[in-house]
Amino acid sequence: MDQINCISTTQAEELLKQDAIVADIRDQQSYLAGHMPGAVNLNNDNLHQFLQETDMDKPLLVCCYHGISSQSAAQFLAHQGFDEVYSVNGGYEAWRVDFPEQCEK
Hints:
By secondary structure, the chain is of the alpha/beta class. Helices cover about 40% and strands about 15% of the residues.
């Protein structure tokens, strides 16, 4: 997979309704301050466990601060075996603006 699908927050919300998994690659402090519903704070320390325990057949949404870093992370995760991987355009900042009621802490 050479190109990652970048999707809007609205498309991400629709995929969440279909049981998509969210990998939030921001630092822990930012993640704890707020994140998308059900998001896993993915980092180098838990990457191996995430790859071992996550259903790779479900859509995977990758979220960062503004939607830039998530593109390369999404590409990496796609190469690890996930069938459907998406980068969320605008990252968590766009999600927070578009869906403030759907931010977990």
